[in-house]
Amino acid sequence: MSARRRRGPGSPEEAPFPTRDGADYPRRRVPHAAEPEPPSGWRGSKRASKLGKQRRKEARSAVRKQRLELGVRSARSGALGVLQVIGMTVGGLIAAALVLVLLATGINAGARWMAKRDAERAQSPEVLAAKARENLLIIGANGNGGAEFLAVRLDAEDGQILGVAVPSGAFMEVPGQGYERVGESFSAGPTVSMAAISNYLSVPFKHYVVVDVAVYQDALTNQSLRDVMGNVIETDLPEDERTRIAEFISTVSGERTALVPLPVKPIDLGGQTFFEPQRDQIADLLLKWWDVRVGAEDGAVRVIIYNGVGSPGIAGVAAQQLIGSGMRVVDTKNADRFDYESTLIVVQDGDLAQGEQVASVLGVGEVIDQPSEQDVADVIVIIGADYLPPEGGES
To answer: Do 216 and 241 have their domain in common?
Structure first.
């Protein structure tokens, strides 16, 4: 029996491996998949190089695209965030501004309401009568129909006399005569002059005394009214009031008397010299002495009066009535025609109460609401045939 040659355990043909029953059997060699051989030759190398470059380029492009998309999304998100913050900030500022506007509007409306209420109280007949009792217009007549004026406050409470001297050439609105030298108003009567001075200063004057112009000038020079009441030519003062005023004047020393000239600016019109009163320059005096605020007209209703019936001087008579009740007449002139049967009271600022107040003073008038953007007058009055001047007034 021939001996068989035994392969060692390391031989690939007979390498044993354990089985379920523990027997060793030769393990069959399983061949591995062959690795693809790289392309050989010049063309193969070139194709491989191009393919690699293309793949690397595509990879870089994909990375850049991904980064770009991330950047865009990040920028978009950041921009939206910034816009939201800006929107919230702007919205907050707008809301705060609206609140401030509403508060300011409310405060201003309240202040205007209170100012209007105080002005209405100051223009009440009772208050005006009390103020007028302290006031006296001293007229220095020159004998030629002209005059100069001294608007005086007799302050019994503080024991002092305060006054503003208005020169004859002062150019101002004279009721019924238009703008002219105030001295010429005396030719129409002392009540017309008194209305003109009251209207200009917004100070109520109810009584006057007329003295010679020399007595008037001495009073200004000596800063004393002691010689005035003893040299009266004409007055509308009741006897008891005349005595009361004379006694008070005698007790006031020169140190407690202040008579100042009204500042004026000369104006040459057609070769004639007029004096334009500088009312704003005595604003402090008017406020301190008479509680009149320049520019606010002390809350007085501003009125323009038109003569609608053609009767000479009738607009001036109506103006004197309104001025005496605390209103301010801005102008008097003729209407577009003279056949108005009814007096018309046209309210320009929407406050019908002002129109009713005018009608109450005149005793007649149809109130019409006709708002206007003009800021010259609050009420326009067109005198009609139904208007009856008060006793003593011109017809």
So the answer is: yes
Taking CA atoms, 140 is separated from 10, 215, 219, 279, in Å, by 156, 7, 10, 21
167's tokens: 């020169």
**The CATH number of the domain where 351 resides is what?**
3.30.70.2390
Cα angle value 320/321/325 (rounded, 5°): 110
Residue 25 contacts by C-beta under 8 Å, 6 or more apart in sequence? 16, 17, 19
Query: Of 97, 122, 147, at which residue does a domain stop?
Result: 122
What residue type is 19 in one-letter code? T
- Compute the distance between CA of residue 329 and CA of residue 321 in angstroms, rounded to an integer: 10
**Is the CB of residue 27 less than 8 Å from the CB of residue 7?**
no
Same domain, 145 and 161: yes
Q: Supply the CATH number for residue 225's domain.
A: 3.30.420.590
Predicted TM-score (pTM) of this structure: 0.64
Distance CA 280, CA 342 (A): 38
Range of the domain at 169: 132-296
pLDDT bin (cut points 50, 70, 90) of residue 60 is: confident
Per-residue confidence (pLDDT) for residue 40, from 0 to 100: 54
d(CA 286, CA 202): 9
Number of domains comprising the chain: 3
Closest by CA position to 167, among listed 181, 153, 148: 148
Letter string b/e over residues 109-130, b meaning 16 or more CB atoms within 10 A of that residue's CB: eeeeeeeeeebbebbeeeebee
Query: How are beta strands 208-212 and 135-141 bridged, if at all?
Result: parallel
Q: What angle do CA 303, 179, 361 make, to 5 degrees?
A: 30
- Mean of per-residue pLDDT scores for the chain: 81
What span, in angstroms and rounded, lies between the C-alpha atoms of 107 and 331? 34
Residue 33 placed within a domain: no
Domain boundary among 274, 296, 318: 296
